[in-house]
Amino acid sequence: MSTESQNFLLTSESVTEGHPDKVCDLIADSVLDANIGPDENARVACEVLCKKDRVVLAGEITSKAGLKKAQYEEIVRGVIEGIGYTDPAEPFHATGVKVLNLLSRQSKEIGGAVKKATDAKRKDQGAGDQGIMFGYATKETDELLPLPILLAHRLTRRLAEARREGEVAWLRPDGKSQVTVAYEAGVPVRVESVLISTQHAADVTREEIAAWVATKLAPKALDGWMRDGIRFIANPSGSFVLGGPSADAGVTGRKIIVDSYGGAARHGGGAWSGKDPSKVDRSGAYFCRWAARQVVKQGIARRAEIQVSYAIGEAKPMSVTVETFGTGDAKAAEALVASFDFRPAAISERLSLRRPIYRQTTNYGHFGKPGLSWEA
């Protein structure tokens, strides 16, 4: 259904790199990079759990990198230190965590399915799993992303920058943002509200945090969307001194809407971090985003959503569907997308996915950032 004639509110959220789930995502993608760097054909499916002083690595890895348990532990501690969890007074900090390594090799059945040739043509690597993936693009921002998720990411990124730069001494790594945007006739017209929840030192008041958010953080992050009348809410729960995995459990793959389009488009359900490109959950979603961008960039439609589905072990997709929401030439969009090669190996080749590029995708969205091949 077209939303071009509709007026509505759309809210999206983002989280900082110190959020417990994002700590896990970054560890998983760092493990992936450490394996796919030395071995471009590494098979990696890494899951991570963080809670208090424990980090659990689980999943399946088959790689010529030959990493030892001590090297995985070094990766974990490096990620945690880089995020900023270094206070020994907290349960979760870089030098004090205990790492439980439950990684094993990829099963022969899955490995065989990926290698199995199911096409007579080239680039016939089988999909690493069954599933459906979506990609989306919209002309409403230069990044071809929905405005609410774009602004939400700018706010959390700015929170992290302000902490690292020492702009205010009380900021701590964990935090969230939420932005509500008003649309008229399907076009964003104003920011209605901004919600910030940030971990902080014990000696700062909620009033101080709220004033800083409204007068310093938001004007810089919202840029041209800053206006009088925005409702600002800061730390509505009150105190947020204990945060990160010291307070809450983190798990990979729990922020899939934050990672993608903030609820403005559909999601196939598969998480991305910690998975090598043979897992079409990740590579298929990236390529669908690339394809949707082409539809919008070429002026065929103002909005485009691509869906692809796969069967494990088969290279050719089971289906590819194009939706333009009544914003352009649907048949031309379908014809363009039909010219793209959605086979897993072809995707990896076109987007150069067999490289250690995944740490840069983990935080503040997998889309809309420069330097990513699916955003080129």
Q: What are the main properties of this structure?
A:
single chain, 376 residues, alpha+beta, GMP Synthetase, Chain A, domain 3, 11 strands, flat
Strand elements, count: 11
- Per the CATH scheme, the topology name of the domain at 8-15 and 148-244 is GMP Synthetase, Chain A, domain 3
Radius of gyration: 21 Å
Helix tally? 9
Give the class from helix and strand content and strand pairing. Answer: alpha+beta
Helix content: 25-40%
Quick check: average pLDDT? 94
CATH class of the domain at 8-15 and 148-244: Alpha Beta
Major pleated sheet: 4 strands, mixed
Structure description:
Helices cover 31% and strands 23% of the residues. The model has no long low-confidence stretch (mean pLDDT 94). The relative contact order is 0.19. The chain has nine helices and eleven strands. The protein is flat and about 60 Å long. It has 376 residues and is α+β, with helices and mostly antiparallel strands. Strands 1-6-7-8 form a four-stranded mixed β-sheet. A four-stranded mixed β-sheet has the order 4-3-2-9, covered by helices on one side. A three-stranded antiparallel β-sheet has the order 5-10-11. The two termini are 29 Å apart.
